[in-house]
């Protein structure tokens, strides 16, 4: 008889700095869940990894005076040391600089383009480098990022956008007819509330910073995934 499959993943931490206690806490919690499900006979796949691309990492590497790849290699080495120290029993470790990851991202982008889900436009507005988030004026708090409180930068650049707005009704319907798709109930209601307010198309490429996955159909554009 085939074992019941059970998949668990942590968030993959951003490699702009060494890990902190809150991230270790998350790994330990995920490890407890993975170990328990192994004990009761399930076929477990426990994933963690490293998010290595983006402007913030590029900036941290510049401040250190090393190439971005060398910088993230050092951060990943330290992360793996901590995973071993705390006996985290992950089955796989994904890096966003891995070639296999890059290929999957590029394949997905090509499919999205072929399906008509991507379009090119110019973004003009505020950008928070630490949070790597585009913001509109109404989201700012005293001219600063509402999440981290730091100053934002004005940017204007050509991006590819994903037509997220076109999926609002489909997402609402899917969640409503699949009651266990989002749990607990309070979070499901929260997600539905956000969806019903409407979704905005999101930027999926940058041109200002080259440390990312190259967009396969448009040189000069890079994706951070």
UniProtKB/TrEMBL annotation:
The keyword Aminoacyl-tRNA synthetase applies. One of its GO terms (biological process) is methionyl-tRNA aminoacylation. InterPro entries: Met-tRNA_synth_2, Methionyl/Leucyl_tRNA_Synth, MetRS_core, Rossmann-like_a/b/a_fold. Pfam families: tRNA-synt_1g. One of its GO terms (molecular function) is methionine-tRNA ligase activity. Gene3D superfamilies: 2.170.220.10, HUPs. Its EC number is 6.1.1.10. SUPFAM superfamilies: Nucleotidylyl transferase. Residues 6-151 form the Methionyl/Leucyl tRNA synthetase domain. It is an enzyme of class 6 (ligase). Keywords: Aminoacyl-tRNA synthetase, ATP-binding, Ligase, Nucleotide-binding, Protein biosynthesis. This is methionine--tRNA ligase. It comes from marine sediment metagenome.
């Amino acid at each position: 008889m085939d074992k019941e499959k059970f998949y668990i993943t942590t968030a993959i931490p951003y490699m702009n700095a060494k890990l902190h206690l809150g991230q270790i806490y998350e790994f330990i919690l995920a490890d407890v869940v993975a170990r328990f499900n192994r004990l009761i006979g399930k076929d477990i796949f426990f994933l963690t990894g490293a998010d290595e691309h983006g402007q913030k990492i590029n900036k941290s590497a510049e401040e250190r005076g090393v190439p971005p790849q060398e910088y993230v290699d050092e951060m990943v080495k330290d992360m793996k040391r901590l995973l071993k120290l705390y006996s985290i029993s992950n089955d796989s470790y994904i890096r966003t600089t891995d070639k296999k990851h890059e290929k999957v991202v590029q394949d997905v982008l090509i499919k999205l383009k072929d399906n008509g889900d991507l379009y090119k436009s110019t973004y003009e507005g505020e950008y928070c480098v630490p949070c790597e988030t585009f913001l509109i004026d109404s989201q700012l708090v005293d001219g600063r990022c509402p999440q981290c409180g730091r100053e934002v930068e004005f940017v204007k650049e050509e991006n590819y956008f994903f037509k997220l707005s076109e999926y609002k009704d489909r997402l609402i319907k899917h969640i409503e007819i699949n009651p266990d798709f989002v749990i607990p109930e309070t979070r499901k209601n929260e997600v539905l509330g956000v969806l019903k307010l409407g979704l905005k198309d999101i930027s999926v490429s940058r041109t200002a910073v080259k440390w990312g996955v190259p967009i396969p159909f448009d040189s000069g554009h890079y994706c951070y995934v």
